[in-house]
Specification:
six-stranded parallel sheet; 33% helix; two-stranded antiparallel sheet; Rossmann fold; 25% strand; alpha/beta; globular
Length: 179
């Protein structure tokens, strides 16, 4: 998957930092609805209903995170409704933050530099981060999606894997946003 993305021109060679982990300088590049190529350094996702169902991480999401973490910094933000997020995400190369409100999510995105963030979510409390992120994806997953969120998203998909595929297959974004 990562090799395919590199062939498509998606990956800019990450430099190593002192800990030996990739340092994303320019990150991922996607052509958005304005026809301009944008660079992204962060992938920020909601947990409940987006990457999990009833608090349990959806199948194959952990492996996808391991692969994507090689090319982009990943953070999962959650109110942890089911109390399982930390144990489900333990050991993955991602940052996990327990939040209380949608404003907390927007503040996190703002800290990362909103224009460099890809935001993915399904709930009403994801609207504030989607509204300021450089690129936003709404996921209508097994727990549904908030109608208000659908209006705030750049692209809407029916599965978290489809959302993650947009990152590894950037021409899908270009095709989906073309006028």
């Amino acid at each position: 998957m990562i090799r395919e993305a590199a062939k498509a021109g998606l990956i800019i060679e990450p430099r190593q930092n002192r800990t030996g982990k990739p340092k994303i300088a320019a990150g991922l590049k996607l052509t958005l609805k304005d026809g301009v190529i944008h660079s992204f350094s962060d992938l920020v996702l909601d947990y409940n209903g987006t990457v999990s169902q009833d608090g349990f991480l959806l199948p194959e999401v952990a492996e996808r995170f391991r692969e994507l973490a090689k090319i982009i910094r990943i953070a999962v933000l959650t109110a942890d409704t089911f109390g399982k997020a930390m144990s489900q995400l333990m050991g993955l190369p991602i940052e996990v933050r327990i939040i209380r409100t949608g404003q907390d999510k927007a503040d996190f995105v703002r800290e990362r530099g909103p224009k460099r963030v890809i935001a993915v979510g399904n709930g009403r409390n994801d609207v504030p981060m989607m509204a300021i992120a450089g690129f936003s994806v709404a996921v209508i997953g097994p727990e549904g999606a908030a109608g208000e969120l659908l209006r705030a998203a750049d692209i809407i998909v029916t599965d978290i894997h489809h959302a993650l595929d947009l990152i590894t297959h950037p021409l899908r974004v270009k095709a989906g946003l073309r006028e």
